[in-house]
Amino acid sequence: MTDATLEESVERIERALAAYRRYRRRRRNPQLVTERNDSKDVDRSIEMLMPDTKWATPLHEIDSARDGPTAFVVAGQHGIEPAGWKAAELLVEMTPQSGTLVVVPRADQTAIEAGVYSGDEGSLNDHWRVGSEPTIEIARVIWDRFESYQPDIAFDLHSSQGIYKSGIDDGFGQALYPTPGRARDVAAAVVDTLNEEFVTDWPDHYDYIVGNLQSGWGTFFSHKVGGQYDGDCLLCEPTRRTTEDGRHPTEAQRIRWNLASAVLALDHYEMTFDESI
Ligand SMILES: [Zn+2]
Question: Is residue 232 part of a domain?
């Protein structure tokens, strides 16, 4: 078999698998899946995860109908970080020019509804231990979907009250935390662009940096992706910290930093969008 023929066969198999996965999800929850077709054949569908429970939350799939990467975005693990889920909901409205974008913007509805950091089962981001099943149902369901999509790149969007390694607090903000390997190089490149184009007019210590490696030593979603799936993931943390002279990164500012982090990184995986940010 020539390389070209082999490549075509692999592509055909991948398309068939993707179609089968869509069929399986629709059969699981036929009444809860809605679809809408854009003029460009982009297929948008929604699957309600854990329907009829307080955890019920939508998973959005935006299939460009063109070959390309699969990206999986989780946000809303903490109920006081709207910059995460609102950036994710903006991504849902965007139109990828290739590949498939999967987004779960509001992972912990119990935390978001109550307006608290941790939901009814504690911080959702503490339930993703490497090598075992996630310890609560919503995490198991999200991980099941993650594995069935086999994404090339994943994101977990948050925000933090402080600034990582700034020496002024012990927060985690203004950093992208990558899994080892390619995501680490992508994070470094994205950080440079963020600082040049999106963190202008802020004190120097508001510049983004690359955070510690999400290689599986912790219980975060990003650790599970890096340590168990051996995949690429970026944990994104813009800051909410007020500057010494009283300037506050507004929610809109933090959403923009999160959105830019994801869109700039996706560009490295050959997913570009019709819209500009
Ligand atoms: Zn968080």
Answer: yes
Strands 57-63 and 100-104: antiparallel
Task: Give the tens place of pLDDT for each residue, 152-185.
Answer: 999 999 999 999 999 989 999 999 999 999 999 9
Is there a domain that residue 22 lies in? no
- How many A from CA of 86 to the centre of ligand 1? 13
Q: How is residue 116 written in tokens?
A: 């608290």
Those residues whose beta carbon sits under 5 angstroms from the ion ligand 1 are 78, 81, 158
Please indicate, yes or no, if residue 273 is contained in any of the structural domains. no
Contacts of 5 by beta carbon, 8 Å cutoff, 6+ apart: none
Residue 255 pLDDT class (50, 70, 90 cuts): very high
The structural domain count of the chain equals 1
The pLDDT-based confidence of 6 (bands split at 50, 70, 90) is confident
Which CATH number does the domain housing residue 146 bear? Answer: 3.40.630.10
